[in-house]
Write a structure and sequence with these properties.
The protein has about 110 residues and is mostly helical. It has two domains: about 1-30, no CATH class; about 30-105. It is about 70% helix and about 0% strand. It is built from five helices and no strands. Helix 4 (about 55-75) packs antiparallel against helix 5. The two termini are about 40 Å apart.
Length: about 110
C-alpha cells in the first residue's frame, strides 16, 4: 500500500491525463515577494482568491486612491482640490485601518 503522497500524485496524474487540471494546478505555490509580505495567517486565503481571479477588496481601494491622486493633480480650481484632498485623506485612512486589521488578523 502506497503512502498518502503517492496516492495524491496518482490522482493528480489521472486528472491531468483526463484534462481536468488547468495549467499550474497541482503544482507547488510560487513563492514571490507578495507572498512573503502577506501575513502568514492570510496567505492561503489570498492565494485561493488569486487563483479564482478575485482580487482582495484592498486592491480596489488602491485603484481608487490612484484615480483620486490623478484627479487631484488635474484639478483646476481650489474648491475641487480641497474636496479631492478630503476624499483622498479619508480613503487613505480607510486603507490604513483595513491593512492594520488584516495584519492583526493574519498574526492571530
Amino acid at each position: 500500500m502506497g503512502t498518502l503522497d503517492d496516492e495524491i500524485g496518482r490522482k493528480l496524474a489521472e486528472a491531468e491525463a483526463a484534462g481536468q487540471l488547468k495549467s499550474g494546478q497541482g503544482k507547488p505555490l510560487q513563492i514571490d515577494e507578495a507572498w512573503l509580505q502577506t501575513p502568514p495567517g492570510l496567505r492561503m486565503a489570498f492565494q485561493v482568491l488569486k487563483s479564482a481571479g478575485v482580487p482582495p477588496a484592498e486592491v480596489e481601494l488602491f485603484q481608487q486612491r490612484a484615480q483620486l491622486r490623478e484627479a487631484l493633480g488635474a484639478a483646476a480650481d481650489e474648491s475641487t482640490r480641497r474636496r479631492l484632498q478630503r476624499q483622498l485623506a479619508e480613503l487613505e485612512q480607510n486603507i490604513a485601518f483595513r491593512l492594520e486589521a488584516l495584519r492583526r488578523l493574519g498574526q492571530g
